[in-house]
Amino acid sequence: MLDINMSDVIAVLKSLTPYLVVLGVVLVAAIIITFAVNKKTVQNISVRKLVHSESWLVVLVVVSVSIALMLTGPMATLLGNATAKKYKLSDETIAAANTQAQDLYSEAVTMLQNNEDNLPISGTKKLNVFGWGSTQPILGGSGSGSMSNEHPMASILSGLKQAGFETNSELTDLYTAYRTDRPVLNMFQQDWTLPEVPADQYSDSLISDAKSFSDEAVVVITRFGGENADLPRDMKAESVIYNNNSKDYEDYQQGESILELSQTEKNMLDLISKNFEHVTLVYNGSNPLQFDFLADYPQIKSVLWCPPAGQTGFNALGDILAGKVNPSGKTSDTFLKNVRSTPTLNNIGNFPYDNVEDLAVKVNFVGSEYTSSPTFVNYVEGIYVGYKFYETAADEGLINYDDTVAFPFGYGLSYTDFSQEMGDVSYKNSKVSFDVTVTNTGDKAGKDVVEVYYNPPYTNGGIEKASVNLAAFEKTKELKPGESETVKIEFDDDTMASYDATDAKAYVLESGDYEVSLQSDSHTVIDSATVNVPKTITYDSDSNTHNGDQVAATNQFDDAEGDMTYLSRADHFANYEEAVAAPASMSMSDEAKKAFSNNDTYNPAEHDNADDEMPTTGAKNGVRLADLRGKDYDDPQWDKLLDQLTFDNMDNMIAMAGYGTAAIKNIGKVKLTDLDGPAALINNFTGVSSIAFPSAVGIANTWNKDLASEFGKTLGKMAREMHVDGWYAPGMNIHRSPFSGRNFEYFSEDGLLSGVMAAGEIAGARSQGVYSFMKHFALNDQETNRTAMLVTWANEQSIREIYLKPFEMAVKDGGAQAVMTAYNYIGPTYAGANPALLNTVLRDEWGFRGFTLTDYFAGFGYQNADQEIRNGGDAMLATMDVTNHVTSKSATSLKAMRTAAHNILYTAVNSWQYENGEPKTELPIWQTGMWIGIAVVFVLFIGLEVVTIRRFMARRKPAVEVIASEK
């Protein structure tokens, strides 16, 4: 979601223009009257003064009325948010959340390398911590992932100190003297500079002192990402802002990406490796760094991946280095030796259409006007995303795995050793099950992860299938040396089904042998067994659906496939070069243009149904929203309640749903509050925030379902204390590319791992009565052009198997009650107004009950309420007037509004606010102030009017007496 404060201010000022124009006209009129009515034009002084006074009293009335209208109109939502009562966390909650966040991060840190058992550090409590990033570590991300300064934050250095280490202050002083702040990287400005002290600025005495201080060196390398910008693939691209650390050399050469080491970082590693034999590299970032350099530095014994740490996470890093905590994280993404070897490389980024002049629209955003035209991105890799590509490509002989992959998906080391033994595999009643016995065979206590994958039978040229697919996982408790735990693994056989978009147009579990394997990561097999499916099962009827679908899934996104070549496993990926090449055409097809719509082309009247009947509005049935708590979505009493709503009731609730939904007094609907962000609740209006947890990548790295659920539960508790009802999270888009700016906010390259974690968080928050907005629905997997009518082309199989998978699990397993839709189009249809996505798949197939909300609503030339409510959208994340109001009052429109209102109210009444009946409400402080102001103005007006009349009469009396005497 957007960081919207400035854009809201500008938009509100623009929306005030009509009121200000009226004020200006009346003011000018009063001034004209004041000067026009003078001794020459009106000789009678009493009349002249009366006209002057009354004209300015009119100004007073008009000003007062205009201000009241502005306050209750365009400014109402912003004022309500800005003046909301501040509800802060209790000290007890803060302490508990800080501890929990640290505990979670202790399982998020992933040890990628530990040669010669370099870690944990022993024999010294002194550390040389190198790298400018050690003084400015990554705690979160930008945009909605930004962190508040309300609560103290642990840093890398403070975490080391807390663990009992003393760090070299001379090095720290060098870095803080070099630069004290991180370059600006936010929604609207991206400076990608990586500050690092050049090697020649480390004096001989500094290095000598460091060697005397300790023989242990810790090197911190950081990478930052955030909302609205993807990481640069070419640091020399014209659009990339980067300042070299030295005038003597370039940090990057043409074609080098930010996920490679800069020349200054390389020089630093050269310097450190020449002077220290025991080096630990800490990579602090969300996007997988290119680890092509480790072989060049044998002195780097250990490598730790530390995702953004949140409030207290870095305390856990100190404990891990000290050996107080045993790392148990596993990678949630694949780390490559060359990030350019990803099959998505040529099909991420900026691809503007060259034939869409007729679809260009004028957009006004953050005070500037520009022309926006449709752009596109091709998901040419199909289902072969992340490890599913690398493992399958290696099996087919397309790549040399060891030359390509540095660290596999699901990989992570421990200070101890484990053995895993796979029991007999049972396949009965459509379930695959077996036990895994995990034994700690080392000499330190620790946790291990049981990872289970399957390899389905593949027919050359048939349904696309990866040779390695995560099926299930579990994490053990902490096992003492010699201790064992038996873990139960069970999954439905339709987990192994593939979506056949060509022939069956349904999920299909093909007959044949399925290899079910116990693995330590996506590449390393511990043991395996064969499960034979004797007969092909096609999930194409309502009595035989896939994964508990309410109705059988069938093709819904044929119009999103486009006309490009998709990567195929056929003949050992024979079409690889053709499929993954950059787009061959930059033109939108005539068929797509015909189906495409934006705010210039959409006319709601063209989509009215003449057979629709106008629903009842404004009835006096006496039903209160609280009466519907716990009732079924289809309970007949809902109709009585909805009959009571007026057009304005529904429109205000639908249109102004930014950071909460509006109150409706006549049904007892109170104003609810919804907040960002992915790791913490932050109220940008009141300045109050919760404790920030580690990023979604870190949560995925734990591979611990319970930790995800506990995080959701704790966030729900904090939300209640902050008087918050809805959470704009979790994000569960896929790490399609290592360069996505928002990877910190999303879990993984794998749909199942993402789905398990997302479902756990949502269920945890729901247990506290807090509804979560799973986002961004769907295929919002890059930041580039996301609000520039980004047409995403993908085939049905990849949409369902990869990109919708975590959302599906969030609904079915997590009980999601709210959805935030994506900015992008899916094929020629905006995701926020896509009936196939929002109605057929989300509601009909998955059985979702709740409401959908746009991402931040600024119009952008294609967002409009009329289109969205008719196609499964319910609410607009807007705080000011743009195209977020429903303009059509046809029967079709009113029916759609009624459905949207139903969805919003259903979620609202089942939130924690209504658990004890209808909540008590207080008049917002700004309204109290407004009414007091109106009362003061009224009294002032009456008083001034009385004075004016008296003066008029007093001036008129002498004139009358003179006239009488003359007679």
UniProtKB/TrEMBL annotation:
Keyword tags: Carbohydrate metabolism, Glycosidase, Hydrolase, Membrane, Transmembrane, Transmembrane helix
Keyword Transmembrane applies: yes
GO molecular function, one term: hydrolase activity, hydrolyzing O-glycosyl compounds
Domain Fibronectin type III-like intervals: 448-522
Region (Disordered), start-end ranges: 597-620
Origin: domain of life: Bacteria
TM spans (from-to): 16-37, 57-79, 929-947
A GO biological-process term: carbohydrate metabolic process
SUPFAM superfamilies in the cross-refs: (Trans)glycosidases (SSF51445), Beta-D-glucan exohydrolase, C-terminal domain (SSF52279)
Keyword DNA damage: no
Coiled coil (residue ranges): none
Pfam family for this entry, one: Glyco_hydro_3_C
Family membership: Belongs to the glycosyl hydrolase 3 family.
Name of the protein this chain belongs to: Beta-glucosidase
UniProt organism field: Bifidobacterium breve
Source organism phylogeny: Bacteria, Bacillati, Actinomycetota, Actinomycetes, Bifidobacteriales
